[in-house]
Amino acid sequence: MTIYLKLIWSYLKIGFFGFGGGYAMLALIENEIVTPGWITQQMFTDIVAISQMTPGPIGINSATYIGYVAPAASSPALQSPLYGILGSLICTLVVVLPSFVLVRYAGHYIARHRQSVALKGVFTGLRPVVIGLIASAALILMNSENFGNTPPDIIKSVILAVAALIFVLFTKIHPILLIIASGIIGYFIF
User: pLDDT band at 31, cuts 50/70/90?
Assistant: First the structure.
């Protein structure tokens, strides 16, 4: 049952220090979840992909999934789906708790001191950090699980990624259509 305490501690840290949204949280989530061995790097990559296709923020979606699989991964005695459901509920609630508390109490302070030079300085300093965290997430996802292990697979993956980027930037194709088309293309190429 200590897995639940470990999950609570990990997701409290993620919730409190995960500034900048889901992508900015990815490095922290990976460090907190993959390093202890609750999930593999491949599972983490799959969670990121699935979290992007399902409604809701990536941090909450991944917390729900990881909360479900971590108890069974930590102990054979916790194989029952009920332990997974309990883990899902705990992780989902714990990851949103810090944001709820911060918004509830800091929101009033921020609204009252909106013109403060110190507060503006804090937010100005956070912007480049968030951009760096998002860039870090991109680098985390550039791994063999996403791009392949052999040079031909890597080249195909890079071409597919660049083509998708070009379509997003220069056409008015709907992102859902692009995802479906990429999946179909990937099925035939790989």
Answer: confident
Mean pLDDT: which of 85-89, 128-132, 149-153 is highest?
Answer: 85-89
Average of per-residue pLDDT across 117-141: 83
Q: What are the DSSP calls for 79-99, one per residue?
A: -SHHHHHHHHHHHHHHHHHHH
C-alpha distance from residue 67 to each of 22, 94, 101 (Å): 17, 11, 21
Helices marked H in 34-147 = 41-53, 58-74, 81-112, 117-141, 144-147
Q: Within 13 Å, how many C-alpha atoms sit on residue 170's CB side?
A: 6
Spatial separation of the C-alpha atoms in residues 62 and 44, rounded to whole Å = 9
Q: Output phi, psi for 142, to 5 deg.
A: -90, 75
* SS3 category, 115: coil
Token pair 């990976």 is found at 30
How far apart are alpha carbons 21 and 37 in whole angstroms?
24
Report whether pLDDT(10) > 80: yes
d(CA 27, CA 141): 10
How much is the CA Rg of the chain, to the nearest whole Å?
Answer: 19
74, exposed or middle or buried, with CB in 10 Å at 0-12, 13-18, 19+? buried
> What is the reported pLDDT for 85?
95
